[in-house]
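idk why but the lab printer keeps eating my pages so im just putting this in chat instead. protein + S-adenosyl-L-homocysteine:
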Amino acid sequence: MFAAITTTATGARSLILVCQALPATLWLPETVASTVDLPADLAVKTYSGSLKAVVAQLWPAQTGFIFALASGAVVRLIAPLLTDKATDPAVVVVDDAGQFAISLCGGHQGGGDRLTQRISQLLAATPVITSAAQQQQLPGIDVLGEPFGWQRGTGNWTGVASAIARGEAIQVIQEAGTTLWQQHLPAHHPFQFGWPEVPTPASKTAVSPQARVWISPIQRRFDVEATMPKVQWHPRVLWVGLGCERGTSQALMERAIADTLRLRHLALAAVAGIATLDLKADETGLLALCQAHHWPLKCFTANELRSVPVPHPSPVVEQAVGTPSVAEAAAIRAAMAIAPPSTSAGDCPVKTAENCLCITKKVIREVGEPGAVTVAVAEANGEYTGRPGQLSLVGTGPGSLDQITPAAKDALSQADAIIGYSLYVDLIRPLLRPGQIVEGWPITQEQQRAERAIALAQWGLTVAVISSGDCGIYAMAGLVLETLQAQGWDGQTPTVTSYPGISALQAAAARVGAPLMHDFCAISLSDLLTPWPVIEKRLAAAAAADFVIALYNPKSQKRTEQIAIAQQLILQHRSAETPAALVRSAYRPDESIIVTTLGDLLDHPIDMLTTVIIGNRSTQLYANQLITPRGYRL
Ligand code: SAH
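predcted complex ->
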């Protein structure tokens, strides 16, 4: 929940767009609300009296505040309410004119830096972000694991962040979870991975680390007196296999799990979920336990469990429920069901059904508590993110950054991962933020790109698949949806949202006047995916029907004949004088524009970066502009 607060009419006008996009509730003094034209669908609240009291009242429940106020006033308003950076909400200040967006506090864990980036994109404002990690193009150490659902453990977070800010070397010991983040760091980052090898003359001269980051299911206790600051992230890799008698209380299960983990120094925060026998799917205490911890409950049939080899099979259990093991077998099955979509930590061996059980079963009873619990714990190769995945199909327009919609920019800055053809990824690089997983792919391999994006989204990430122009026009959107369809997608997981972009035909048309003012069509001359006879048929039909024609993919190094055939087919229905345009790399630094005629089309260079526009029978050429009459002046 976001609150956008201002005391002036100009401030309100700056915040309207932000409120609609986030969405956020707009807070205004009663006296100002009546002076501003507010959209009907906007959530608006008015107040009279002290703003300080309003902010204090809103403070505990909001994820973020956006103030259009002087920053000094905001500092005074929030100063008494701040507690610590782990719990404070994001606070962003926008100046009255909407030129700057300042991340004031709650920058990392409160999400203030990201919110600031979003807002500045929405308002075309300059983001002012002062955190050191941002300057170094690094993900904040206290938000590093958020995309993967890792839980922040104990440690001296400020100490480690300060060491990073000072540019000191940081040791990272990663014993679990994806190492994807390591592959997307800037070239000069401060992290040293793993333990140093046996000292060699070279390693002796290496900079010695001044702070340590653990990424592990193990809960380490750090000496508060130690000079080296340390922190720990806990990827959710542990599956607790649980069996219980009917009517066992939630409290007993809770203590049994906590005690079992503590004995082996495993973090409760590293628990991914609970696994059990399907007969227990309605066990009240178990359901309450899972709900309280946001743990998924994985239920297996006796048949699924009986085939799992376990260290402690029990004939008694087998007789009662049809499988010799519940806790151990369910833990192993749940852990083995998680296949990480990307490389996992190199510091620990791959888990198999034979070695993933890290705690064998224990039966726990307590005097005075009804019931009994059996607990076993297995470690998976990949983490459970606990996040619903999202796919954003983003059109990044013809080339320059100012031709991308604010909504598309917003989707890019929100994404955990960006996937696209490397040329297009490079074009939007200035819009990306530190810590994003950015995968530029070769021009072919569209199917692999789609599969990769889907796999990351199914794992829980927010993934932006980018295409130039519009994502749904000769681009990735269709392929992603077809691939989802082939996988039996339920329409919801992951969610899919499209962000339209300016397509090449619009961009090219805008550069040469108004050729698309009457009925038009797009035809791709690439016969890679469409048989050539089909393309010829469409060209002839479009020419006969007098459509203005935009030709995509007109010519490549290997495919040179098609454009000549297209010209001949169209010439059968239109005069050689018909105005035409060749627009190459529209809105990119190497843009070139040639206005010509259908007859002279081939006298000019044409390649894969060109869109060809051919006018209809009434298209005129005037002052180097193609004008297709709509009919107003006839
Ligand atoms: N999804 C894209 C089209 C991809 S097909 C869109 O909606 O624009 C690739 C073809 O698009 C190229 O061969 C070229 O014909 C055209 N194209 C893409 N970007 C262009 C640009 N900036 N200028 C001119 N043509 C472009």
